[in-house]
Amino acid sequence: MTHPFGPRTLLAIAVVGLTAMAVALVGGQLEHVALIFVGGTAAVLMAVGPGDMPAAPPMLIDPPAPPAPPAAIDELIAAINEPILIVAEGRVAHANAPAHNLLGSHIQGEDVRLAIRHPAAAERLIQTGTGEDAPINLVGLGTLDQRWEMRVTELSGDRRLVHLTDQTGSYAAERMRVDFVANASHELRTPLASILGFVETLSDDKAGEDADVRHRFLKVLMLEARRMQRLVEDLISLSRIEADKYRLPATPVDLAAVLEEVHAELADTLDPRGADLIAEIDAGVPPVVGDRAQLSQVLHNLIGNAMKYGRPGTPVISHLWHDHTGMVRLSVADEGEGVAPEHLPRLTERFYRVDAGRSRAMGGTGLGLAIVKHIVERHRGRLDIASTPGKGTTATVLFPASPAASPPATIRDGLSSKRNSTVTEPPVQE
Hints:
- The chain has 430 residues and is of the alpha+beta class.
- The protein has 13 helices and 13 strands.
- The protein is elongated and about 150 Å long.
- The model is unreliable at 407-430 (pLDDT under 50).
């Protein structure tokens, strides 16, 4: 056990104690002896104190933390799912797995300009001490259609962090927006140019006097104006569907009844193809949770496409049934020229046409299947398109059945004979 006082302090206290004892021996009173001892001890402590104790070592300022060991850096950047490089003295000191996958496993220890072989990146990678962190866009790094954003951040110890971010999705979305605006402008400008040209011609006195010419020109004006009207309506419809795509419908809809209504509307038009429509509705098809107007639009677009592109006189068959997975399925099949496999993935793109001239001649806007796709996605369904060139195309949509719906107890009545409709019993389950 160590004493809080040094030897000089203890010696001084002992001297005071001996003095007090001497006073007591010569006949001093007890209270005088105690007063001498206490007062003398206090004086010694105030005068001497612990001054003879070893002085505490001076406080030192903590040195800066040493750089993290390589193992700690590798562990840190390994947790990031985007390509990360740590550059020291112009070479790649550390790289995580995404960086190796993008740039190759050989980049460790390589000159960073050789690791990221891109002209736009080379100048920024050799600059040091600029403090600049402006992003640099890299095209063609990895695959030709990829777009990357590179940022370089200065670190301590003359090191730099290179961060690559994949911007391919954002770039594709921007391209789609630009293409959409360009295509919409083109589709509107074409009929508008025709309308203006014929109006200018009709304003000529000579053309206006000829009744046949005037009638022919007015007919063209009407067709072009209706074409513009259909395009504007489809654009507005697509905009509304996209605005509502995150709001789930909540109303049970009898899709069989909607199919009957659409068939009746299309059969009552002047289109001779109305006589080729056939509906096959299985018994016991439950309702779906949906937007009735949008579901009707899906049926109009799918059946209308089948009527346009199927061969005249061949059936257009709409089949509605409840499959074993609990989904309500609707397929629309035609017997037309079909679609080549390379076109199938792009059929739901806005304004994409396999045969642009034929589509425009038939009054198509190029937005029908895009609208169908967005409506189906809003209803949490799925759209499948299968086609065999020379034989025809089948479009199938799947919708979740209403969870609270119970299958109808009776078989649905047959459709009118005008539509050549049939009602089929549900298939026997093995």
